[in-house]
Amino acid sequence: MNFVETVRNAGIIGAGGAGFPAYVKMQSRPDTLICNAAECEPLLYTDYYVIQNNIENIVRGILLAKEQLGAERAVFAIKKKRQSLFPSIEKAIRDAGGGIELFALGDYYPAGDEQSLVHDVTGRIVPQNGIPIQVNVVVNNVLTLLQIWNAIENNVPVTERYVSVVGRVKHPYVAVVPVGTPFSKLKELAEPEPGTVLIEGGVMMGRIANENDTVTKTTGALVFLEAENPAVREKTASFQSVTRFSKAACCQCTECTVLCPRFNLGHDIEPHMIMRTLNYGLDATSAVAQAAYLCCQCGVCSMFACPFGLSPKRVFADFRARLKEYTLPAAAHTAEPFNNARKLPGKRLKARLNILDIDVKPEFIGPLPYSGPFNIMIKQHIGAAAQPAVKTGDRVAPGQILSNVRENELGTPVHSPTAGVVTEITEKFITIGSES
Ligand code: SF4
Ligand code: SF4
Which fold has domain 3-154? Predict the structure, then answer.
């Protein structure tokens, strides 16, 4: 099996949350590979512990990917505030014979956004509605590169991942968690404060989740926050109230546009203009509305910039759901002159989100003590629909394929995290129970 087939068969998808199949990127020919270890969402230590515990193998993964891609340059991009990790990263690179640059990013949000990262590291601007390979760059999350090493060197598929469990909890921790573990089990160990709300992913870009949901290959964190927290209010507000408040309160001050990271890269997105379009019932297919395709949903406009807590982010999401396709021509971009000065410092964001008091380093506890049953999502990647490859009553081995896509379709298989028996298959899940 060649490199690309091995990465595909190991079920590797973007571990940073995107879920894009990694084998596709491994077929391109960039000049630069960036290992994304920015971890820009507040409170998370997922990448931190991935690096602390696996740095030699991550470096091997970067070098394997660099060789596969034929890239001239490989960059390990990580925030300067993680400098306690720098000596071990530098040593691992030296021990592996070099060939990787350590790049220290500022502590701003969203430093890990692919397009901001590409600009910081290379000075290039990804075209709007485009992807990094259009400027000869491939970006992979640090855990994805570790998984690539594990697939190529050991033929091990993805069946577990590092997860931060943080926020208003008694015991914040990071653990290695099998895919399919219910969130309720992670919650039990963390002991959240009563009345808190569960967010899967980061405070800024995560979604409100249910404790019966289960860990997937893209679950990097569970965050528990009080219901009154601005991030929770932004995510839970009905769209009706979002539009009502927009119409009543938006004064067109343009603060949301001034701080929008995509606007500052020179893309044709102006959040205050989408508010105007909404408030005056203007043409929903106009160039202004097409900017819905350019919004990365980072939440800077709604959770930091707007003095009234209005949400251009939610409005863009709504327009995006209604627009059929992006029709504007590709354009050359120049970053705004004040791009650097407008980057949002991590500490100011945490202060605005009222989470400075819970910004603590969680403990690493190793493998989560849980043995099943596991509820495993049949499709975890961006791409084609997946079909079960097992049936109820089948005995499965650890690492056995549970679901897959057809050979010529975009997607990857999902593997069993354990030995057990398939006890149920629904439209979305395969449940694996114990063998006895
Ligand atoms: S920051 Fe708020 S009030 Fe100002 S233009 Fe944007 S949405 Fe309107
Ligand atoms: S969420 Fe807001 S700040 Fe972020 S890209 Fe979209 S419009 Fe810009």
Answer: Rossmann fold (3.40.50)
